[in-house]
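ok trying again, last paste got cut off:
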Amino acid sequence: MTKTLALVGCGSEKRDKRTEAKSLYTSTYFAKKRQWAEGCDTWLILSAEHGVVHPATVLEPYDTAMADLSDEQTSEWATNVMADLGPQLSCFDEVVVLAGRDYFAPISDELRQAAPTVQWPFQGKRLFEQMEWLDQTSPPDQSTLESFE
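nice, full thing came through this time. structure:
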């Protein structure tokens, strides 16, 4: 059986209080990505502010977006993300990135070198096409899906 890690891009719409990262982002888009990712063996959030975030990590609301980062900050973000992900990648057969270009591009080359298989199903898709893909494509393992607030 294939072990899959999903990397989910964070969202700009957030709750206004400190909460677990998986519940911090309130957009329908994030909810769809989260639901799909919960069908994988493991999922993590890619945050412009915090890098790699475990879904249970409690965070304060923030307003940093990848577009806000300078080239130097983006490079530093990518280095930190890969440092956090690197040791975990050998445990997975594939990594599925459910994030936009701003999140994927800075880590794509190094991620593709470090992970056996990397999929970026959102490549070339506009937002509504990404939402459609999430609705129509089953995650690798439906048995772990849970409802969430």
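cool. Residues 142-149 have pLDDT under 50 and may be disordered. DSSP finds five helices and seven strands in the chain.
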